[in-house]
Structure formats: C-alpha cells, structure tokens
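Purpose: get a first structural picture of the assembly so the mutagenesis plan has something to point at.
Setup: two entries, given in the order below. No constraints added.
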Amino acid sequence: MSEPAQLWLRLAILGLGAAIIQIAAVSQFPLFGINADVTPLVVASAGLLSGAVAGSLLGFGMGLFVDLALVQTLGVSALVYTLVGYGAGRLRELRAPQATFTPLGVGAVATAAATIGFSVLEFLLGVDAPVSFLLVRQTLATIVLNTLISLPVYALVRRWLRPVLPEDPRRRRRRAYTTGGLSPLSRR
Amino acid sequence: MYDKTVRRRRAVLGLLVAFSLFLLTAYFGESAGGGLHAVQRGVLTVVSPIQDGASRALKPVRDLFGWIGDTLGAKGDRDKLRKQVQVLQAQAALDAAGAARGTELEKLLGLDQQAGISAYHPVSGRVIGLSPEIWYAHVTVNRGSSAGVGMNNPVVNADGMVGKVTTVAPNASVVTLITDSTSGVFAKDVVSSAHGMVLPAVGDPNDLTMQFVQSTDAIHPGDTIVTAGAAATSGGKTYSLFPPNIPIGRVTRVDPGSLTQAVHLSPMANLHDLDVLQILTQVNGG
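Result (structure tokens, whole complex):
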C-alpha cells in the first residue's frame, strides 16, 4: 500500500476510534459538571501533523459521525470541525511551529473555536438561548479542561500517525515558504 | 504544482463546507420520519450497544470521578444545607399546621405516585450517552422500541420529572431533558393548585420557569410543582403528554407581574447526574 493510502487509512481509523471513545467513554466522566471533548483536539492534532486537506477531511468525517451518533442537528459539528482541521493544517503549512507547547495552544484555540462556532451556529439556527454567565463559565471550563489534556492527545495522535507521515514537524526547519506551504500529502 | 495544490486544498474545503450546509438545510427541512433522521436512528442502533458496553465497563471509574467531584463539592453543600436546615427549622416551628399539611401532601405525592407510575408500564433504562455540547440537553438510554418505548414517552427518575423520548431506535432512545429549549410541561402548584407552563430558563440548566401563572395565585418559595396531567380548555379537557402529579421542581423565587407572574424553580431531578431512568410507556390520556 502506498504511503498516502496508508495515511488516509490511519486517519480514518483514528477518526472513527476517537469519535467512539468520545461518545462511549469520555462523555461519561463529568468533572465539576463539564465533560472533556477530545474530538476537536484529535482533529486539530491531525491537522497539525498532516496538513489542511487531511485535517479538514478528518474534521468533516468525525463531525458527521458525532452528529449522527448523538442525534444532533446534522452538519453542525461537521462544519465546525472541518474548519478546525483546516485551520490547524494551515498553521502547519504556513508557520511550521516547532515549540513543545504548540499543541497546548492549538488545543485551546481549537476547543474555543469549536465551542464558540457551535454556539454561533445554534444561535443562527434559532435556539433561543441568551448568553448567560453560566454558559460562558461552562464554555471557559471546557476550554481549560481540553487544554490540559491536549498534550497527551497530541502525543497519542502523533504516535499513531508517525509511521506514515513523510516527516516529523519537530524535525522540520522553518522552510514553509521555500516549499510553497505544501501539505505532506501533496509532495511526491 | 503550487497552484494545483492550492486549488485542490481550496476545492476540498469549499466542497466540505458546502456539503455541511446542504446537510444542515436538508435536516431542517425534513420531518422526523425523513431519510436523514432514519440514518441517524440507524447509526444510533449500531453505536448504542458499544455505548452500553462501555458504560457498564466504565461504571467503577465513573463512580470514582463522581466521588472526587462530590467530595470536593461537599464542603460547600454542607454550609448550604446547614443554612437550609436553620430556615426549615424556623419555618417548622412557626407553622406546625403547615408541616402537618406538608406531610399529608408528601403522602399524596409519594404513595399515590408510586401506585400511579406502575400503571404507566414503566421501563427502566440506564443512561449510556451524554452529549458533550452545552447546547444539547439530551441523553441516550439503553432501551428502545424493542422494550416498548415510543416517541414522546415521559421519562422520570427517583426524584421526579426528567424529560421525554424524542428519538427511538430498536435498542436505544434519546431523551430530551426538561431543560432543553424545546421542552414545555403543563404543571401546577401542589399547595395553591395554580396552573402554568414550565419552560426552561434557557442558558441556565439549573433553572426552570413556570409561566402564564395568574398574578392572583398564591405561590411561595419552597412550594412543590408537579405535572398537571390535563388542562381544562374551551374545547373540553386537553390531556398532557405527561401523567399528573410527577414532581418537577421546587419554587425558588417568584417574579410578580401585572397580569401573570413568573415562578422560578429548581428541578427535583439532578439532571447533571442521571443514571437509572424510568420511561413511562403507556400514559393514560397521553
């Protein structure tokens, strides 16, 4: 099997596995009344490692599965996670961040983007919900909790994808502009 | 090469966003029996046994998490409960007659309700899934149409009203909680018999409001609000989906108005920590 095909296969297994773990296990552990949500973290980590195309496709697939399995409005999570995956992928392609704590920041931003994007879409779809202090507090608590677990999630995703990644971003030098910001999937 | 890659990347993003928006539009446009809803029920049927298995396997770990959370919150609860005990003791000492009446009402609510609920063919189920999103107030239960569960069946737990069934698969169903923005229950005050509609205070899952209550009705903090069961209307009697006398919440404060008053209540059931639920599969007049 070719390398890109192996990468797509691993991404598909990662997406399905992570979504099932989120729905069946992680969502069962409320801590201080909130639940961690590994879905945006996995999507952002995969985008950060594999690029914008892979990130957005994984985001769309995971979002669609979550919408289907949790009987939510179809398309909302798919749209939000597509953009999260694309954003993380573009960050890799344009900036090639190498700092150890990059996944921490990316995890926080991905969770914030997912939560706020979700809220905005719900508003647009007509859910009559004023922005209350409790809602803001819960959103912030989810972002904090997700940020705390973003490093181990990133490490697990990298471990799973590393055998099929063309090169590890940690070993890359800042040459995003010299390569034209290409995704590893598009290099031959 | 670069242009081709950029075009492909943009095309993929555009297609995914367009497909998401198409799904959103189609989902909103179709009825509950439509194709996309049927696909959702199919996926729920496949995923629910996995959720059920994981829920059973992870129960000890979940209990441990619950224990940690409970322990951390215990100090605050203790102080709060001490204050409540003081208030209740003073209240009980001042109004012994009221306390006796309360005992009588408790009997009515407890014993009669026990007898009542068994008549509605309750099916016990366990919560196997919770939505991680703040915006969705619903849970997945491991009982479905094969156990006799149907659409709009009321759902209760040991403390009181929880919600109603909104999606049914053969081996699982989705319960929309009373705090969801789409919920509404016709209810009454046990003490004054004042009627109103209990709606969620959207944005605050710990608060419900009973609306359309006449300003002349006497409702006080501490009163118990239960389901009314049926309403007298101009066309005769209109039955609610929910059977009568199921506790919904306790009045926390009353906002007076010129014609109607808004009554705030806290739900009896702890909707953050649901485990075993009862689905009432045959409601008289429902």
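The radius of gyration of chain A is 16 Å.
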